[in-house]
Amino acid sequence: MIDNVQGTVVAEACVNYPGGTSVDSKWKSARAFSTMALIIGGVVTFWALLSGCLYPSRGTYKAGGLAYMICCLFMGLSLLMLDSNACHNNRLNEMLKEEMPIVPLTFPSSCSMAMGAKCTIAATVMWFLAAVAALTVEPPQRSPVTTQTHDVTYTKTTAADGTAVVTETVVQGEPVPFGGQAGRDVIEPLVEQPGV
């Protein structure tokens, strides 16, 4: 699609790179680093969203923070693209000049930072802030599982006619964390009380 905007010709199309395009190591590295940052960051972010249900340990939370720091590094390294053959000695620029000789096209000899590079810098800062937050904030804690304690007292009373009546008295205690003093139920021995 070719648009004429205020005297500037804008050509927008998705095409394969020409056969003679040399993809150098910086170009390949920028592709790899941006892909790894996306995958690692996506997995760790999904895990962080579930941490309220998983209750990770402090060490696991720090490992997530280190993974965010790696994403910060990888996202920053994806800016190697600005110093690769994609920006210098690009065969695609020459091809466009050959295919459209009537239109006076001029292309800069190197790339400059545009919206994509600025978004990459913003993403690098955001990964860094996520790493700092994960390394400094305490992970969510599960409230302790408690058991309810109570004291039970059985009293046996014998009436004048010889009938025995057993009464049960239950006194509620404080909640105790599971494994603390669980099974603290106290059963008092039967105490015989003379009838009235």
Could you explain the architecture of this structure?
The structure is a single chain. The chain has 196 residues and is an alpha/beta fold. It has two domains: 2-136, Butyryl-CoA Dehydrogenase, subunit A, domain 3; 146-193, no CATH class. Helix content is 41%, strand content 20%. The chain contains four helices and six strands; from the N terminus they run E-E-H-H-H-H-E-E-E-E. The protein has helices at 25-54, 58-77, 91-99, 115-136, and strands spanning 2-5, 8-11, 146-158, 164-177, 186-187, 192-193. Strands 3, 4, 5 and 6 form a four-stranded mixed beta sheet that branches. A hairpin with a 2-residue loop joins strand 1 and strand 2 (8-11). The longest helix has 30 residues, at 25-54. It starts with a strand and ends with a strand.
Describe the sheet with the most strands: 4 strands, mixed
Number of strands: 6
Principal-axis shape: rod-shaped
What is the number of helical segments per DSSP (H or I, 4+ residues)? 4
CATH topology of the largest domain: Butyryl-CoA Dehydrogenase, subunit A, domain 3
CATH architecture of the largest domain: Up-down Bundle
Low-confidence stretches: 180-191
Helix content: 40-55%
H/E element string? EEHHHHEEEE
CATH class identity of the largest domain: Mainly Alpha
CA radius of gyration? 37 Å
